[in-house]
Design a protein that fits this description.
alpha+beta; 50s Ribosomal Protein L5, Chain: A; 4 helices; Ribosomal_uL5_arc; Large ribosomal subunit protein uL5; rRNA-binding; Ribosomal_uL5; RNA-binding
Length: 170
C-alpha cells in the first residue's frame, strides 16, 4: 500500500453535554480532565430554546480534542469500556465513528464520587489518510478532496478491526 494512502487517526473528541451552565458544568469539566489529562473547553448553545431555559451562546457542555498518542491511549481505554465492540450504525459514510459511554466510572481506576455525580460522554473518532487533505485547506488552488482519498465506511471498519481489535456488531 502507498504510504500516503495509509489511514491514521486524526483526532478523538470527547464530549459531555450537560444542558445547563453552573455547578454541573464544572463537575463535567473535572471528569473530563481526570479522564484525559487535558483541560476541556466549553461548548456553547447555538440557539435559544425557551422550553429548556437555554439562551444562545450559553455554555451547555464541555469537550476535549485529543490528537496523536493521547488520542490512541484514550481510545484504547474507551474501547475497553465498550468491550471492544462498536455497532455498525456508529460509522458514517465518511469513515468516522461515534459511540457513547454511559458512565465515567466504567473506566479503569475511576471510582464514584458523590460530589461529582454520574456523567456519560460521547466519543467521536475522526480518521484521515496520511496525505492529500491539504488541497481542501490551502488558500491558493483550493479544491475538493477526490473520492480516491476519502475514507469509506468499510475502510474505517477494517482499520479499527486491524489496529484496535474492535469487533463491529452488525
Amino acid at each position: 500500500m502507498n504510504q500516503m494512502q495509509e489511514i491514521i487517526i486524526d483526532k478523538v473528541v470527547v464530549n459531555i453535554g450537560v444542558g445547563q451552565a453552573g455547578d454541573r458544568l464544572t463537575k463535567a469539566a473535572k471528569v473530563l480532565e481526570m479522564l484525559t489529562g487535558h483541560k476541556p473547553t466549553q461548548t456553547l448553545a447555538k440557539k435559544s430554546v425557551r422550553d429548556f431555559n437555554i439562551r444562545k451562546r450559553l455554555p451547555i457542555g464541555v469537550k476535549v480534542t485529543l490528537r496523536k498518542d493521547d488520542a490512541v491511549n484514550f481510545l484504547n481505554k474507551a474501547l475497553y469500556v465498550k468491550d471492544y465492540k462498536i455497532p455498525d450504525y456508529s460509522f458514517d459514510k465518511h469513515g468516522n465513528a461515534y459511540f457513547g459511554i454511559s458512565d465515567y466510572t466504567d473506566f479503569k481506576g475511576m471510582k464514584y464520587d458523590p460530589d461529582i455525580g454520574i456523567f456519560g460522554m460521547d466519543v467521536a473518532i475522526v480518521l484521515k489518510r496520511r496525505g492529500g487533505y491539504r488541497i481542501e485547506k490551502r488558500k491558493i488552488g483550493k479544491k475538493t478532496i477526490p473520492s480516491s482519498i476519502r475514507i469509506k465506511k468499510d475502510e474505517a471498519v477494517e482499520f479499527l478491526e486491524k489496529n484496535f481489535k474492535v469487533s463491529v456488531v452488525r
